[in-house]
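<backbone_tokenisation>
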Amino acid sequence: MPHAMRVLDASLLLVLALAGCADSGDDGHLVPHTVLGDPSLPRFALADGRLVHLRTFGDPEAPVVVVLHGGPGGDHRDYLHLEAWAERFFVVLWDQRGTGLSERVPDEELDGPTYLADLDYLGETFSPGRPLHLVGHSWGGAYATYYAQRFPARVATLVLVEPGALDATAARRANVVSVDFGAGGFQEFLNTTDYLLPDADARADYFYVIALAGMKEDVELLGYDFWRLGYRANLGINRWQGNFDGSYSFDFTTGLDAFEGQVLFVTGTSEGRLGHAFQMSEHVPRFAGARVLHLPDATHSELLRLPESLEAIGAFLEEAR
């Protein structure tokens, strides 16, 4: 049986099990509402009026630290403990456009240039006239590098926590896609399961998580309890990068010599796809004078949770204040 079909079969069994026991709420949803459906959620309006789920902590006059979650298509829920930095910084946690609990948007808005503009607007809003400190995990690390490449003067420091591939060379080594979530079969699967969820994005987000869970050994997907991911956001960014067709039509490294800020890499085991060995060979050499915090026993999802990591990153940011 093809691998993709095995994944979907296993996922369907899990879906049926969850359908009988999951707490779906009064309205029958198996995923949380976005900011459009839940007026109690903190939100921020981007330049074009699109709403993202966003939280801030600390003194707005303090240096600004923006945390960029992984994915593409993740959310900021696993980084809420970074509120601890609010004693010294103004910390911004948010769900990127079209993912987490942010507003779902048309496909044409889910690409790199739009994400770049979103981060720039967020930075100009919270840190006008002052450079940002960016902390990016996984895809978020690639996103942070992309921004530093295009707006080097707007970034004070980069903390890259096992960032995703930064160029085609790295992508050919790291970006092994087990299932093309944009394939016709998977799309049909999503479109024929509306007995559980009343709207298309909620349905797609839910089954995206289930499908991912079927391909991972860790029952706590991405290191935290089941939550809402952004299926179309993942699809859009991966397509824009050329990860599905193997064209890898992106490069976040050209011109990085114009970036004069300090860079800290945080790496864990060498066993993971984006682990220590990969970062040392593919990414660290791209940044002159980059420092590396190596936690050899840490998995990819643990790197921003360990006390020694948080202490070291906090000290690094404090040094650059």
DSSP finds nine helices and eight strands in the chain. The first helix runs from residue 3 to 21.
